[in-house]
């Protein structure tokens, strides 16, 4: 391992680690080709497939949910959850502004209006206290986002929802296998959903799943995602104008193949993430997202920290990220404030903590946490090396 006093790789020094040493993603698992071949040889590649049903049952049981519906993607799963809970035109839904655009887009698609609340300065998740101030007579639901796989304050949010008669839909898109108060997230409110998009902790390239413990929500969501059909009615009886949001058997087969690894991967991400946070938090100017007391496992789809350039000789974050990549550690700068996006454009809304975290935030990706512990040491060493040479990085071109 290179000493932090060495010349930065960005300006000609030796990288701390080689990019090729990181795990690849998506995972190339043994048995995957056989699982797909089995689907090819079956009569049902989509609706009514035993492969889909088996995956839904396996995933629901693993995530402490009674019911699951495999979807084409996570965005549609949120749309189905909103519609199943009768949330639509004239209604408002509270969400954090520190989230992917799909959280707001699904609400708009459903005819409701997203109302943005600020995030907690320590966890970077929706702040229930700030959400309280956003409630109006039109508020019908709250969508906490488990940002990066770090569980939101579900106890606080559920308490707020009960007090004001609001539905709770968990945006657990990034929170596969995350645990809060002894239960996996996703069905701790009225409904929730998880994404299987290509970067996610298990993936089928695209895909999603709706989770709930409420039978009536499941039945209504089934109608919405399966062309207006009921669970027991005739095939060509459509009692409402539902859509086709269904997952294919090929997606389900790819995901089912990963279910035998999901717990192992989750435990490894948790161990490496916790260890790496300890290293990074010891570096002046680096502040990793904290957890709420009820959290017993962070999914670590992302390891998120803020970067304070004042502790790096005012080295801009963009230069810090460039230097980090040169050392063999790829990180990104994460979300922009959602309420500032052109399709929202609430320029008059002030959410100071969201603005700060978007400005200072840095993300490490989940598959980097599937490496061994020495690679976690390498990440921290790369940050220390940049800090020790920040002034030189200011002034020297490669």
Task: Describe the model.
Helix content is 35%, strand content 14%. The chain is of the alpha/beta class. It has two domains: 9-26 and 262-395, Aspartate Aminotransferase, domain 1 (Alpha-Beta Complex); 32-259, Aspartate Aminotransferase, domain 2, CATH 3.40.640.10. The protein has a seven-stranded mixed sheet, with helices on both faces. β2, α4 and β3 form a beta-alpha-beta unit. The protein is globular.
Question: Can you give the helix content as a percent range?
Answer: 25-40%
Q: Helices and strands, in N-to-C order?
A: HHEHEHEHEHEEEEEHHHEEEHHEHH
Described by the principal axes of the CA atoms, the overall outline is globular
Tell me the structural class.
alpha/beta
CATH class call of the largest domain: Alpha Beta
Terminus-to-terminus distance: 22 Å
CATH architecture of the largest domain: 3-Layer(aba) Sandwich
Largest sheet: 7 strands, mixed
- Total number of strands: 13
Spatial extent as radius of gyration:
22 Å
- What name does the CATH topology of the largest domain carry? Aspartate Aminotransferase, domain 2
Count helical runs.
Answer: 13
Mean pLDDT: 96
Total number of distinct structural domains: 2
Q: Which strand order do you get reading across the main beta sheet?
A: 1-9-8-5-4-2-3
CATH superfamily of the largest domain: Type I PLP-dependent aspartate aminotransferase-like (Major domain)
